[in-house]
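Sequence, structure tokens reproduced for absentees:
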Amino acid sequence: MKTINIFFIMFSIIAFGQNQVKIDSTFNHYFKALDLELSENKNLNENGLYFDEMTLDDGEKIYINKYANKAIIFLQEITKIKAPVKFTAQSLASYVDKETLEKWKHWYFLNKRKIKWCKKDNLPYIK
């Protein structure tokens, strides 16, 4: 009976650790995407995972952050802290600013232990 209890405790600890790694990875990925969005350095050699390169009609190259919008939506939903909005092309769009990103990072620091991993959605959630 003791062997079963020890096995269950060990399995629970391992499962918790694996879920915490997934949670940390998700938040760190989105924080990096938004840090890069605010950065002037859009170097594709270093950060190619995060940016798509597009060439405009005049030949100018621009870099689009592939994860910024998804990160903003996710962080707004889980933290309930809204990003600022601006009017663009006849619609409102959320965007990140340094102040909001710092609020999200602070929220994560304070609430990290309350966040759980949803296997069904493959995303973190908070109760």
Notes: The radius of gyration is 19 Å. Residues 2-126 form one domain. The chain has one domain: 2-126. The chain is about 55% helix and 20% strand.
